Structure formats: structure tokens, C-alpha cells
Amino acid sequence: MSEKEHKVSRRQFLTYTLTGVGGFMAAGMLMPMARFALDPALQAGGDTDFVRVASVDELTDEPTRFNFTIEQEDAWYTSDVDRVAWVYREGDEIIALSPVCTHLGCTVNWEGNEDYPEQFYCPCHFGRFEKDGTNVPNTPPTRPLDVYEMEVRDGDLYLGRTVQR
Ligand code: FES
User: Fold this and answer.
1) CB burial class (10 A; 0-12, 13-18, 19+) of residue 165?
2) What is the mean predicted confidence (pLDDT) over 53-82?
3) What does the pLDDT read at residue 26?
4) Ligand 1: does its nearest atom lie under 6 Å from the Cβ of 104?
5) pTM (predicted TM-score)
6) Which sequence spans correspond to the domains of the chain?
7) Secondary structure of residue 163 in the 3-state scheme
8) Closest atom, ligand 1, to C-alpha of 105
9) CA–CA distance, 63 with 56 (Å, rounded to integer)
10) Burial class (CB within 10 angstroms; exposed 0-12, middle 13-18, buried 19+) of 134
11) Residues with Cβ < 8 Å from 130, sequence gap 6 or more?
12) What is the pLDDT of residues 118-162, one digit of tens each?
């Protein structure tokens, strides 16, 4: 093999190697983007319908835990997902709060600590929220509990996805 042929083949080797590495990296970046674009479950809130949770008549001014199941669809399958809401009523207004602590995602409970009556309590890092879901200053959560989108139809309460405030 001549010196010239040797240089060309080394250059070719580098070209093939860099092309291969570049292509691999590009694929690694593009595949999650493509999945996000195609998969509705990964888009904000996913595809969630409203589900009947309670009769408005059974709501009181005391936050009450309601368990319900939503059917979540994405491009490839449908699955049942369990949800929880803390719901109460003040006059004509209904408040439905997510139980997911806005610190690191543990579950809050109404009056979960006897030292803090009339508040939601998160046992993981002692996070606290007021009855309306507002985070108590100087506890770990830095924003209020999310609220459920809701509809009232024929005296029944339907909940949809959660939204940040
Ligand atoms: S997860 Fe609730 S206080 Fe940390």
C-alpha cells in the first residue's frame, strides 16, 4: 500500500467513525422528541375525560377524600388510572384539590397531624397546606396544591385533569 493510499484510508476511517458517532447522537436526541410529539400521554395532562366523582349533595365544608378511576388513552393503549381528590364545598363554590404534595410528590391528608388542625399535612417532610390548598410558608412546599378541573351536571360533580395555580 502506498503512503497516499494509507492516508486516504485513515481519513476514510475517521470520516466513517465521526459520521457513525454523530448519527448515533442525533438519533438519541431525536427519538425522545419524536415520541413526545406522537404520544399524547406525554403531552400536558394527557388525554383525560371528566369522570363522575360524587353527588354535589354529599359534599360538605369538610374536605373529604374521594377515590375514582379515569380511563387514560394514548396512541397505543387505554389504561385505568386511580385518582384521589380532596373535595369540599363553600356555599356555591366547590373546591377539588389534588392530594399530591408540591414538594416531592408524597400524598397529603386533611388533618393528617393533630398538631395542625384545619390543614393538609404531608408526612414526608412535614409540608403543610391551608384548607384552600395554599402552601404554608416556611414548610417545604413552595406552591399550592393543584386543583382539578371540574363540571357539575345534573347535580353530580365530574372531575378532569389537574392544573397548577
Ligand atoms: S413531599 Fe411533601 S413535604 Fe416533601
Assistant:
1) exposed
2) 93
3) 60
4) yes
5) 0.71
6) 3-38, 51-163
7) strand
8) 1
9) 13
10) middle
11) 118, 119, 120, 136
12) 999 999 999 999 999 999 999 999 999 999 999 999 999 999 999
All cell numbers assigned to 54: 360524587
Pocket test for ligand 1, best of 107, 108, 125, 146 (most atoms within 8 A of CB): 125
**Cell digits for 127?**
409540608
* Percentage, residues of the chain above pLDDT 90: 65
Decide: 122 in ligand 1 pocket, CB within 6 A. Answer: yes
Distance (angstroms) between ligand 1 centre and the Cα of 134 equals 14
| Superfamily for the 51-163 domain | Rieske [2Fe-2S] iron-sulphur domain (2.102.10.10)
Give buried/exposed letters for 8-26 (b at 16+ CB in 10 A, else e): eeeeeeeeeeeeeeeeeee
Cβ–Cβ < 8 Å for 108, 145:
yes
